[in-house]
Write a structure and sequence with these properties.
- This protein is mainly alpha-helical.
- The chain has one domain.
- 68% of the residues lie in helices and 3% in strands.
- The chain has 7 helices and 2 strands.
- It has helices at 3-18, 38-46, 68-74, 78-115, 120-151, 154-184, 188-191, and strands at 58-60, 64-66.
- A two-stranded antiparallel ribbon has the order 1-2.
- Helix 1 (3-18) crosses helix 5 (120-151) and helix 4 runs antiparallel to helix 5 (120-151).
- The radius of gyration is 23 Å and the shape is flat.
- The termini are far apart.
- Residues 165-200 are annotated as: Disordered.
């Protein structure tokens, strides 16, 4: 994939994030900020997206993902499974639409570069059209995931709560270890400036 295509795909994803669209395929295993805005998308991208265990998982807007293995622990009934599948299908459709839009923007930019006539207004107009389209679709997907959450019983919600608590505890532990490692890199000489030699 070219650099332009990558940039256009990231731009499309950022537009969806700005509308509050929460996309399971673009989130990482860490909790997503509750506003679902650009800061949330920043975390998702730098987390590398879903790994294999998360790809087919459940996504709770405002809370983050629940892995496929963890979903199995919830023992969803038939009605919940149907809602879950609807949300997954909506998610895939949104992801495919974003990829297609990224390709169209790349083609438009390439055509402008090839002709030597850049038209930023045309690129902006296409981006705005995509934003509006993805905003509506992303909200639909968000509502589909929320419908799955609404269908969970108290026991299942308690399980999800515990899963998120465990995940947060692991995150805090990783951060503490990172801070400890960075702190060890400073020697005594760096920690405090040496005193100037006494004048004779």
């Amino acid at each position: 994939m070219s650099r332009f295509a990558i940039r256009s795909n990231l731009a499309a994803l950022a537009l969806v994030a700005a509308t509050g669209g929460l996309v399971a395929g673009t989130v990482m295993a860490a909790p997503t900020p509750a506003d679902g805005g650009p800061a949330a998308m920043h975390e998702r991208h730098h987390g590398g997206g879903f790994h294999k265990g998360m790809r087919d998982g459940l996504f709770v807007p405002g809370l983050g993902p629940v892995s496929k293995a963890q979903v199995a622990e919830l023992k969803l009934d038939d009605k919940q499974q149907a809602l879950f599948k609807t949300a997954q299908d909506g998610q895939r459709s949104l992801h495919e639409a974003m990829r297609a839009s990224g390709g169209k923007r790349h083609d438009l930019l390439k055509a402008q570069l090839d002709s030597g006539k850049l038209d930023p207004r045309a690129l902006i107009a296409q981006s705005e059209t995509s934003r509006d389209a993805f905003g509506t679709q992303a909200k639909q997907v968000r509502d589909q995931w929320l419908a799955v959450w609404d269908s969970l019983n108290d026991t299942q919600r308690g399980q999800v709560t515990q899963m998120l608590k465990d995940r947060e505890a692991k995150r805090q532990d990783r951060m503490a270890k990172m801070e400890a490692r960075h702190g060890k890199g400073r020697g005594p000489a760096e920690a405090a400036p040496s005193a100037a030699p006494a004048a004779k």
